[in-house]
């Protein structure tokens, strides 16, 4: 039986706007997450679990959990508010990184995780080509400040989900063309950031962090198989081909032409993308997709970052009758799909892989004696870890596994009712309570998994 590598990075993940709180502390600028209206019956992000002020306490819990790595994101608005260097914000991440290292936990930062500065959003956001340079300046600041202590950097979290959930421009009201122009600017910004990193000889590795999901045909009909290939190209390979090969995927480009969404691409864009590519691939996996063909309806935005969508004439999302679904949002639960997805990525790119999100969001109950019995989360994670192990047996090179999430945090669409963490935080959407931390059953289970390097 193939086991996990000795230096395997057992970790867990969060993002800045979902976990930190401290939304206006120490000179922080509002982000797009701070200025938008919360989804109905959900909290805002002002306090979250107050990780900004309680990170030392949380890191001690992460140490007890046994984490070898902590994947977090840096708030652009904290370190570079309104385009000006903010020493207080930089110091927070200095302290966070140093405290992680002091506790033998490797910091794995993501540069951008859904929280564009509001001042850039007001100037057109990613639709404005000037945002490319702003992003590169921001990245260079981070590389110079923290590069001596960071081995793995992620550029943009789930860029594909930003596009398909309509969260790039105008809340999804923009045209496909404007959305994919903003997407192209992100791809160019990513390439330029990787260029800065490689030329700076910072000593680590850098790569993207998209959400990747294998796509099944609804039936054995050849047309459904072609539909699955088209959706894979559009949802997955468009973003990874750009990051790893520096080019647009040809089948994805076919769809962009059909929906009048081909962006303006300069020759300098093509050159910088081609010459500056990823060292490894981080990816988030929650579920697989199933499609049929042809799609008889028009193109649609998906309602959240995992839901399927349809492009007329190419593919139509379908329910997979063979899979159970999650309580929230009815996402399919497909551990074997993780193995399929990992093999597809590795076969296509031959780069080391790092899972940076995978988890089950569910309502948890704190008992009177301070316990949280989340066997459903243990079952979910155990099944996915086993499929990851089997993919390693297949020959896939895995660097580590950082499930979502290290501690309870605010779900973008479902607020605080939907919990993912190994650590329970005592609050709900509209009552902060005492924000006390409590170890769930899954905490002790994952602690044992790490201790035995996945053998149990």
From TrEMBL:
<dbReference type="Pfam" id="PF00232">
    <property type="entry name" value="Glyco_hydro_1"/>
</dbReference>
<keyword id="KW-0378">Hydrolase</keyword>
<dbReference type="InterPro" id="IPR018120">
    <property type="entry name" value="Glyco_hydro_1_AS"/>
</dbReference>
<keyword id="KW-0326">Glycosidase</keyword>
<protein>
    <submittedName>
        <fullName>Glycoside hydrolase family 1 protein</fullName>
    </submittedName>
</protein>
<dbReference type="InterPro" id="IPR017853">
    <property type="entry name" value="GH"/>
</dbReference>
<dbReference type="InterPro" id="IPR033132">
    <property type="entry name" value="GH_1_N_CS"/>
</dbReference>
<comment type="similarity">
    <text>Belongs to the glycosyl hydrolase 1 family.</text>
</comment>
<dbReference type="GO" id="GO:0016787">
    <property type="term" value="F:hydrolase activity"/>
</dbReference>
<dbReference type="InterPro" id="IPR001360">
    <property type="entry name" value="Glyco_hydro_1"/>
</dbReference>
<feature type="active site" description="Nucleophile">
    <location>
        <position position="357"/>
    </location>
</feature>
């Amino acid at each position: 039986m193939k086991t996990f590598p000795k230096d395997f990075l057992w970790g867990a993940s969060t993002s800045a706007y979902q976990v930190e709180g401290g939304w206006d502390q120490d000179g922080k600028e509002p982000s797009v997450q701070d200025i938008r209206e919360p989804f109905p019956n959900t909290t805002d992000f002002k306090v979250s679990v107050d990780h900004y002020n309680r990170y030392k306490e949380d890191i001690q819990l992460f140490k007890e959990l046994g984490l070898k790595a902590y994947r977090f994101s840096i708030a652009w608005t904290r370190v570079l508010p309104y385009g000006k260097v903010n020493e207080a914000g930089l110091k927070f991440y200095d302290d966070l990184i140093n405290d992680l290292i002091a506790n033998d936990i490797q910091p794995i930062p993501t540069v951008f995780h859904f929280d564009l500065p509001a001042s850039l959003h007001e100037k057109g956001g990613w639709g404005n080509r000037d945002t490319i340079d702003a992003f590169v300046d921001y990245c260079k600041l981070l590389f110079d400040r923290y590069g001596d202590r960071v081995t793995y950097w992620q550029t943009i979290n789930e860029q594909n989900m930003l596009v398909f959930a309509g969260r790039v421009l105008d809340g999804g009201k923009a045209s496909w063309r404007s959305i994919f122009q903003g997407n192209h600017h992100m791809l160019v910004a990513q390439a330029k950031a990787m260029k800065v990193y490689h030329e700076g000889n910072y000593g680590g590795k850098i790569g993207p962090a998209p959400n990747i999901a294998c796509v099944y045909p609804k039936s054995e009909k050849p047309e459904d198989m072609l539909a699955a290939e088209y959706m894979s190209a559009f949802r997955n390979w468009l973003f990874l081909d750009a990051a790893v090969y520096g080019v647009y995927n040809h089948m994805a480009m076919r769809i962009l032409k059909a929906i009048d969404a081909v962006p303006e691409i300069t020759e300098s864009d093509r050159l910088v993308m081609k010459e500056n590519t990823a060292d490894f691939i981080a990816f988030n996996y929650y579920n697989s997709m199933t499609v049929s063909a042809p799609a008889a309806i028009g193109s649609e935005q998906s309602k959240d970052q995992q839901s399927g969508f349809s492009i007329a004439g190419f593919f139509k999302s379908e329910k997979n009758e063979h899979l159970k679904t999650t309580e929230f949002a009815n996402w399919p639960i497909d551990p074997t799909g993780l193995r399929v997805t990992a093999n597809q990525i590795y076969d296509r790119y031959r780069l080391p892989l790092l899972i940076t999100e995978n988890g089950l969001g569910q309502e948890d109950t704190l008992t009177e004696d301070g316990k949280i019995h989340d066997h459903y989360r243990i079952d979910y994670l155990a099944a996915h870890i086993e499929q990851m192990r089997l993919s390693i047996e297949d020959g896939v090179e895995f660097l580590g596994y950082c499930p979502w999430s290290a501690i309870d945090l605010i779900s973008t669409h479902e607020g605080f009712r939907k919990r993912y963490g190994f650590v329970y935080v005592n609050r709900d959407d509209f009552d902060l309570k005492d924000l006390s931390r409590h170890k769930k059953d899954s905490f002790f289970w994952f602690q044992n998994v790490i201790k035995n390097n996945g053998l149990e």
